[in-house]
Amino acid sequence: MHSQLVVGFPIEVLSEEARRAQLVVIGDRGLGGVSGLLLGSVAVALGAHADCPTVVVRGEADTPDPAAPVVVGVDGSPTSEAALAFAFVAAAARKVPLVAVHTWWDLLVDPALAPLLDWDAIEDDERQVLAERLAGWGEKYPDVPVERLVTRSHPSRALVEQSRRAQLVVVGSRGRGGFAGLLLGSVSHAVLHRAHCPVAVVRPETEAAG
């Protein structure tokens, strides 16, 4: 283990170190003025910009249950694929199951049309979407049991709920659709703020797990 004292602003120093690192691990709050924030600005900045995956350590338990699963959010975006790669490696290394969470959200549906929709058919389609996203991963990691969870819910709400039983939640740095233009995707940001266990944020070009 190598240690050194580096003088500088935390975001700049850690971002530079991330260029040659496999993984950056940070607490969810900083010192000084940052300590009053719900989530430290350093953690948010690294989650958005670090050149390697960033794990933000948070949650009530000092030592997560070693048998608890790894949870990953899957939406089919490039960041989702990177998160899947990281999550499978993490679950395999820990010898625990992987819970793949895929949600669908009907916020834009006209309430007048809602009773006319075939919600069962929509859910079946979403299950197929998740199956397609997971295709090939089972063959690559045959020793990792995979639980598929498809639910009609907001992604962040579902992932935070699953974090109660997880030792790690893995999310992409950005979502799809309108969320893609944000500095850090709204789902990732919400999970970082509210998860009950450590959270790994993975950008599309940072797929290796530690």
What does this structure look like?
The radius of gyration is 18 Å and the shape is globular. The protein has a domain of 140 residues: 3-Layer(aba) Sandwich (Rossmann fold), CATH 3.40.50.12370. It is α/β, with parallel strands linked by helices and 210 residues long. About 9% of the residues have low confidence. It has 7 helices and 7 strands. The longest helix is centred in the middle third of the chain and has 17 residues. The chain has a 7-stranded mixed sheet with strand order 1-2-7-6-3-4-5, sandwiched between helices. 38% of the residues are buried.
Entry keywords:
about 210 residues, alpha/beta, Rossmann fold, seven-stranded mixed sheet, 7 strands, about 35% helix, globular
- Highest CATH level, the class of the domain at 63-202: Alpha Beta
Instruction: Give the H and E element order.
Output: HEHEEHEHHEHEHE
- Number of H- or I-type helical stretches: 7
The portion of residues assigned to helices is: 25-40%
CATH architecture of the domain at 63-202, by name, is 3-Layer(aba) Sandwich
Mean pLDDT: 78
Structural category: alpha/beta
Report the end-to-end length measured between terminal Cα atoms.
15 Å
CA-based gyration radius: 18 Å
Shape assignment: globular
User: What fraction of residues sit in β-strands?
Assistant: 15-25%
Low-confidence stretches: 30-38, 175-183
CATH topology of the domain at 63-202: Rossmann fold
Order of strands, widest sheet: 1-2-7-6-3-4-5
The largest β sheet comes out as: 7 strands, mixed
| Strand count | 7
